[in-house]
Structure formats: C-alpha cells, structure tokens
Write a structure and sequence with these properties.
With 370 residues, the chain is an alpha+beta fold. The chain folds into four domains: 83 residues, 2-Layer Sandwich (Alpha-Beta Plaits); 77 residues, 2-Layer Sandwich (Alpha-Beta Plaits), CATH 3.30.70.330; 75 residues, 2-Layer Sandwich (Alpha-Beta Plaits), CATH 3.30.70; 76 residues, Alpha-Beta Plaits (2-Layer Sandwich). It is built from twelve helices and 24 strands. A four-stranded antiparallel beta sheet has the order 2-3-1-6, with helices on both faces. The longest helix has 23 residues. The N terminus is likely disordered.
Length: 370
C-alpha cells in the first residue's frame, strides 16, 4: 500500500459535532487510541463557524479501526458523535449501492439504536436518523459496504416492529430517481384541475360541463368562507382516457365568457418537487455567479496535470476550473482549483491539505476574494 493510500485508509469522518468542539478536544480524545497525524474541523468560509463535522487522520489503520469500534456515538459536549470511514469514492457515495432507506421510525430511535438494529446484516459504512431542532424526523438511512447486506436488511427488517412502530425498509432512491418517477406518472392521471371559470359556477354546473367526457367520481368547486366560488375546482374521472380527453378538448375554451384553464391536477408532493427543482437550479446559478471558491495548490509533483488534479478533487463538489501552472511545457509546481460552492472548497481543503499526491504532500491555501 502506498503512503497516500495508507493515509486515506486511516482517515475517519466525525459527524454531528457540537459547534463548540475544537480540534484540540478531538485530538485529546482520539490520540488515546493511537497516534493522530492531523485533525481538521470543517468551517464556514465566511463566518468561521463549525459545519458540524471533521476528519481525523491516524498514523495506523488499526488505530482508526479501534476508534471506530469503541468511540462511535460517544458524547462530546452533550452530543453523540457519528463516526465512519472517510469515503472519497464519489461513485460509491452517489450510486445508491448498498444504501437503505428506513421510514416510520419511532421518535425515540437515535443514530446508535438504528446502527445496532441494522449492523447484524453486514458492515455499515454510515447510518443516520434525520432530525431537526425538534428531534427525529422519523426516517433515516443505512449505507452498507455491499448490496447483498442491504438486501438482507430489507428482507428481514421491512415491516418489523421497532419500539412502537412497524418500519418501512427499502432500497434508497436518489432525488433524481424519485423526481423521474413523479414525472412519469402524469401519463396515467385521472384528476383534472380547472380554473378561471368565474364565481357563478357550482358543483352541478361543473359536473354538467365535464361529465360528457366520461364517468366522474367527484366534482368540487372551491369556495370561500361566504360560500362564493373562488373560480377554480377539481374533477376526478373514473378513467385516465376521460381525464385526458377533457384536458385536450376543454383547455382554452370559453365558459360564460371566461377562457378557462384545464390541466392535470398535481399532488402536493409533485408541486413541491417541481418547485424544489426550480429553486435548486436558481441556487446553483447564484453560487456560480457569486460564490465560486478558489483554492491554491502548492508543492505539486511534476507529474500532476490538470486532469489528475480534477480527478482527485472532483469528489468534493462541482468544479468550474482547474489549472496547473506551466512554463515551457513543464509544471511550475503549483496550480488552482475553483469550486462552485464554498462548502465544497472547505471540504476539499480539510481533507486534502497535507495529503501525498504523487510523491509530495499538498500545500493548500484558500484564494482571496476580491
């Protein structure tokens, strides 16, 4: 094993840190199991506040394993820390392989309890109960080292009673996969949304207009507190064909002098998915335009080129520019990497500073904003 690979293998991720935990506190704790090479708490680039996670690099792999086995979920400043191997394989993290989704969790189940209930099925890379300031959100994730362990967990745990709740356990689906499923469902819709028909329309009138397209299960004109039409409503058809014909023929038609809109009625989760996608895109654009984060990389091995540097750092986030400075076709031993987000730059700097790349340890500094 190369020096670089050895250091990577002996690196632990420490999550769920109290904001007041310092690197000195972590050093004193983890140094009790074996020599620690470095510790870095990741911080917000603007405020300097802890982001709630850190990386601990041990000299020996066995010491990292011992820390993982004996210190996971220990309390530091009143918060239970969460340890896992530092996973730099972006494909493994994002592919969903070995990843299990659990919902309907009893609110009393914490990270440790989740880990204990799912660890008999195989080696766990990470596990987490999602929470907010009010506590557990009732769902979580367990990421196994291999898919066979995940399959065993799903088979054994789905429907099983944990505390007072029967849990639902299934293969993890990425946000893109879930949204793709939502986008595929419109082809089978039976509910129709109608708006702009004015305030004179009632349930019977709307039913009379739309029942010619097929059997209706329900018709509802939405009304205000005084019982007056709000100008929109819903028709639920028995068949998709009837709903589709109603949309195709009635959208843009006039009713009592009003041009109405008729379309597929979206569920709340679908509207939220569309809005989320739109806001995420807007957020990405704002980051690209205003918050690009630059890192200066020094002490580069002469064999390192743009592509190698991009490959090594791309797992931390989207990169907008990579450049190894050259003179007469030879590397000058330094370069720069621009990330689209400050958070990605912070993670890259925290984990890669001092790491051996080629034959030299990297020296990384944060670029100054102008």
């Amino acid at each position: 094993m190369s020096v670089e690979a050895k250091y990577r293998a002996a690196s632990l991720y420490v999550g769920d840190l109290h904001e007041d935990v310092t690197e000195d506190v972590l050093f004193r704790k983890f140094n009790t199991v074996g020599p620690v090479l470095s510790i870095r708490i990741c911080k917000d680039l603007v405020s300097g506040r802890s982001l709630g996670y850190a990386y601990v690099n041990f000299l020996q792999l066995d010491d990292a394993q011992k820390a993982l086995d004996t210190m996971n979920f220990d309390l530091i400043k009143g918060k239970s820390i969460r340890l896992m191997w530092s996973q730099r394989d972006a494909y493994l993290r994002k592919s969903g392989i070995g990843n299990v989704f659990i919902k309907n969790l009893d609110k009393s189940i914490d990270n440790k309890t989740l880990y204990e209930n799912f660890s008999p099925f195989g080696k766990i890379l990470s596990s987490k109960v999602m929470s907010d300031e009010e506590g557990s959100k009732g769902y979580g994730f367990v990421h196994y080292q291999d898919q066979s362990a995940a399959d065993r967990a799903i088979e054994e745990m789905n429907g099983k009673q944990l505390r007072d709740c029967a849990v639902f356990v299934a293969r993890f689906k990425s946000r893109q996969d879930r949204e793709a499923e939502l986008r595929s469902k419109p082809s089978e819709f039976t509910n129709v949304y109608i708006k702009n028909f004015g305030d004179d329309m009632d349930d019977e009138g709307l039913k009379e207009v739309f029942s010619k397209y097929g059997q209706t299960l329900s018709v509802k004109v939405m009304k205000d507190a005084n019982g007056k039409s709000k100008g929109f409503g819903f028709v639920s058809f028995y068949s998709h064909e009837a709903a589709r014909n109603a949309v195709e023929e009635m959208n843009g038609q006039d009713i009592n002098g009003q041009t109405i809109f008729v379309g597929r009625a979206q569920k709340k989760v679908e509207r939220q998915a569309e809005l989320k996608e739109m806001f995420e895109q807007m957020k990405k654009e704002r980051i690209r335009a205003r918050h690009a984060a630059k890192l200066y990389i020094k002490n580069l091995d002469e064999t390192i080129d743009d592509e190698t540097l991009r490959k090594e750092f791309s797992c931390f986030g989207s990169i907008c520019r990579v450049k190894v400075m050259q003179e007469a076709g030879q590397s000058k031993g330094f370069g720069l990497i621009c990330f689209f987000s400050p958070e990605a730059a912070a993670k890259a700097m925290a984990e890669m500073n001092g790491r051996v790349l080629g034959s030299k340890p990297l020296n990384i500094a944060l670029g100054q904003k102008h």
